[in-house]
Amino acid sequence: MAVSLDRQRKVITGNAAAAYAAMLCRPDVVAAYPITPQSEVVEQLAKFHADGWLDCEYVTVEGENSAQNVVCAATMAGGRAFTATSSYGLVYMYDAMFNTAGYRAPVVMVNVNREPPGIHAVCAGQQDMISVRDTGWVQLVVENCQEILDTVIMAFRLAEDFEIQLPVMVNYDGYYLSFLAESVDIPGIAEVDRYLEVLKSQPRRPRLLPGQAVGCGSHGIGTGYVELRKKHMAAMERVKSKLEEIEEEFAAMFGRKYGGQIEEYRTDDAEILLVTSGSAVGTARTVIDAKRAEGINVGLVKLRLFRPFPRERLSEVLRGRKAIGVLDRSICFGWDCGPLYMEIRALTPEVGIVPMLSFIDGLANMDITKEHIGQMIDAIVSAAQKKSYRQVTWLP
Predict the structure, then answer these.
(1) Could you give the CA distance from residue 383 to residue 390 in angstroms, rounded to a whole number?
(2) Does a structural domain hold residue 3?
(3) Residue 315's domain spans which residues?
(4) CATH of residue 380
(5) Does residue 298 sit in the same domain as residue 218?
(6) DSSP state of 363
(7) How far apart are CA 372 and CA 286, in angstroms?
(8) Residue 275 and residue 215 share a domain
């Protein structure tokens, strides 16, 4: 891959977009371990490093748990760090993810969504990110290759902001986006430097230097533990407004924006709504347009911020609708529905009692087709008309 540090437009994969974004943010440390379908991210970064475009400590570790510990330690020592993983790799670093979050270490990590094995499934699905939703990480979900690149850059601004200081994970659908090649606007490294420049004026962690002591991490007991947990929770809540703020600044500099916590499509006069996330959003927009042409007032809500959950923004946009459908690419054991659906159902006190339908589709690399989304919208229409409906529908 020919590399330039000036602004350019290239046809690249989603994985390459993530690698370009990480390189442009000048990490001090990259911890790398391959796993399908993420491997291309760390391969591209290895090439950037070998060719002299990426000036960092490139650490080839023996596994994902080590990768997470390396980047956690690097940020606690005052550096900027990046890693990438997928599926069982994410599961393997589970305990280290708690350390990273508990230390308030501003790591940025890409997770290329893939079903965790068990029932052997080297294929797309969002169950991996669902499995770590309560580790204390900020989680973002993106739709296409351009949004991958832009969101990784914004993730560094978010993670390292003095008011946040939390690890951020950027999720995108494996296979559907990891290997999809699209035209992507790649900013110049000087532009990214300017975007991240504000971080230099904020209070920062002390850097670990020879001969100078620096401490981090401790055992929390009793009220001290409670205080740290409460502060962590407060920082997570601040993410919501901070994400909106840094995206506005990103739009002013680069000309692209994604709605902040959620993105709305044709919601102004919509009587019914479909809520979803990830690569299926593009297909859903196409179907929404077709249904609008048929006279059905349907709108779309794209969830970008998964943790913290954007309850205020969602409550505002969902309130007053006749029926709501939620499309999940994962399942919620114990509730017999999709996890996004479960969390949106929890907004009932703010939204009001309205038919809510759960649709589970796209597991194990199954396509989420226009026909499937058309069926979902038809079912939501039926529920809005007070006809009987199935609360949970699995699509093949």
Answers:
(1) 9
(2) no
(3) 262-394
(4) 3.40.50.920
(5) no
(6) G
(7) 12
(8) no
